[in-house]
Structure to design on (576 residues):
């Protein structure tokens, strides 16, 4: 931690003025960033909250009981969202780590085209692609089930994971592998004891954010799930207009994994890492 | 010797292909396949239901439709305004958060917190804040600024898409800000100090020294934000009007229309969105090639 240097006597008043101004700015900024979460949280514990009351006249745990009760299928939807996000993360890691290695470590003919192909799904909006995918998926029986939804979530997650790993491998020195090999380690042992420890933090951060990207998808699930696959965002949207208390409680549940991931990964996360570049998708 | 080198290079090329092939295959199949399938249907080609001829009827229909053109203008307005406001505020925030101060780590954590909060949650929060009987309206009533919900200015479901823009600005300030902050911290303050000691005032030092340094990051992040705000669905679906609706919402409405004849038009709108984002990808690639520090 850094501490502010003691101000010199001559310029002290001015320094204090600036510091106060800066803190006012910081507090204003944080207030704006937190503001939309405030009514969500209050709604989740309110029982009666009529206009023009600024705070509810009665509080209750009703919304949270509704969230736990089986009638609204919140627990089922949470399980389904988690399952899809886990499957999607496993597939993205299995396919994205090798592809990231190829892009990060090697120069080859056509690399530029592959890079554009990987970048494109991150920039092209999901809706533009999913209408066409829906037509294909209906034909092959992938509409309205978990498998189809998982596959369509790969459209944003796999390019993201590949991009993150390409950044990780670009900073990785392949000479360590050559040294291990020359000292007699086999291919497998080299990967296990040399490569894996070096790239592991990158894989974990990439996988955590991949999970979040899948976890928060709405329109892809809406169209490919076709009303049969009920995930948390689908439920949340349905309650948003009609049941603010339940929507508030669901929102709290819905943002928890993201906060956890941020706590776990903030050490590795800075703006110049590729991990940030792709999270416009969450 | 020469033959040995060739075979080594051949082996490397083979291993690159093996590493890349699965991921590339999946992206080609799903992403390009989805686009191609959408494109064919936008041309009225759908053999399953007996449509075997290509034509541009759907494109002609949408580009002569006043509703579509209004949607297009509205969508550009949303994307452009949100991106501009978010970039300016993000740069200001990054400058604010750059110097060392007590509690910096906690402040930075809260600043990056809503990177992981889904857009949908932010949109519902904005709805509960800014609808007629929302929290802001209640506070204004408490302060005797307004008497009833109807006095509160329309900020959601409004013609100017104010609520949508607030949501995007709220979500994208930290996204652009974290990227700018990383550049500021890695560059340090030395260049500015030199400019200041040579007689530049604060504004000149920012305009002539700091801004050119952070511009590449701001521009490439802004391209991503513009593309997202242009093509996102759930935020305008929740916070916007049904007419004119943002382009992605209009495409969705046409796609789910009971009249199957509207489907090629939905696909044509999806292609328009894809086309505009393709232009943005090209801009992004070009900018990153020009700007990226090797």
């Amino acid at each position: 931690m850094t501490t502010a240097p003691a101000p010199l006597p001559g310029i002290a008043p001015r320094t204090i003025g600036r510091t106060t101004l800066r803190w006012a700015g910081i507090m204003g900024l944080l207030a704006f960033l937190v503001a939309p979460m405030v009514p969500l949280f209050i709604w989740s514990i309110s029982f009666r909250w009529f206009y023009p009351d600024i705070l509810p006249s009665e509080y209750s745990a009703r919304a949270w009981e509704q969230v736990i009760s089986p009638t609204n299928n919140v627990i089922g939807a949470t399980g389904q969202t988690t399952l899809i996000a886990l499957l999607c993360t496993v597939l993205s890691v299995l396919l994205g780590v090798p592809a990231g290695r190829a892009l990060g470590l090697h120069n080859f003919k056509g690399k530029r085209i592959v890079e554009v192909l990987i970048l494109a799904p991150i920039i092209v909006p999901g809706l533009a692609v999913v209408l066409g995918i829906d037509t294909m998926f209906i034909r092959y029986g992938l509409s309205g089930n978990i498998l189809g939804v998982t596959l369509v979530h790969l459209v944003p997650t796999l390019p993201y994971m590949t991009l993150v790993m390409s950044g990780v491998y670009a900073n990785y020195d392949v000479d360590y592998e050559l040294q291990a090999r020359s000292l007699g380690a086999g291919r497998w042992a080299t990967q296990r004891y040399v490569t894996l420890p070096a790239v592991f933090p990158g894989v974990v951060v990439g996988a955590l954010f991949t999970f979040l990207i899948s976890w928060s998808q709405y329109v892809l699930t809406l169209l490919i799930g076709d009303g049969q696959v009920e995930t948390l965002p689908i439920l949340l949207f349905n309650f948003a207009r009609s049941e603010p208390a339940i929507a508030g409680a669901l929102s709290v549940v819905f943002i928890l994994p993201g906060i956890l991931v941020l706590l776990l990964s903030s050490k590795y996360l800075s703006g110049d890492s590729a991990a940030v570049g792709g999270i416009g998708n969450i | 010797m020469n033959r040995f080198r060739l075979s080594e290079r051949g082996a490397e090329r083979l291993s690159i292909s093996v590493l890349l092939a699965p991921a590339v295959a999946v992206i080609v199949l799903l992403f390009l396949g989805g686009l191609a399938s959408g494109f064919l249907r936008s041309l009225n080609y759908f053999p399953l239901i007996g449509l075997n001829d290509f034509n541009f009827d759907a494109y002609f229909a949408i580009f002569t439709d006043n509703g579509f053109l209004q949607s297009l203008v509205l969508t550009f307005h949303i994307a452009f305004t949100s991106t501009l406001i978010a970039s300016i505020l993000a740069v200001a925030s990054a400058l604010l958060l750059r110097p060392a101060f007590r509690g910096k780590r906690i402040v930075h954590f809260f600043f990056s917190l809503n990177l992981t909060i889904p857009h949908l949650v932010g949109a519902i929060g904005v709805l509960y804040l800014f609808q007629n009987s929302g929290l802001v309206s209640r506070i204004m009533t408490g302060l005797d600024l307004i008497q009833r919900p109807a006095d509160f200015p329309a900020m959601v479901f409004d013609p100017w898409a104010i609520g949508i823009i607030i949501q995007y600005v709220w979500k994208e300030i930290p996204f652009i800000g974290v990227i700018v902050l990383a550049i500021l911290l890695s560059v340090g303050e030395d260049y500015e100090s030199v400019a200041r000691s040579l007689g530049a005032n604060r504004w000149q030092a920012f305009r002539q020294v700091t801004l050119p340094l952070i511009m590449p990051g701001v521009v490439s992040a802004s391209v991503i934000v513009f593309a997202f705000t242009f093509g996102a669905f759930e935020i305008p679906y929740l916070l916007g009007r049904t007419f004119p609706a943002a382009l992605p919402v209009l495409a969705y409405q046409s796609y789910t229309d009971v009249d199957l004849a509207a489907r090629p038009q939905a696909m044509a709108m999806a292609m328009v969105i894809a086309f505009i984002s393709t232009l943005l990808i090209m801009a992004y690639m070009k900018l990153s090639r020009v700007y990226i520090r090797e």
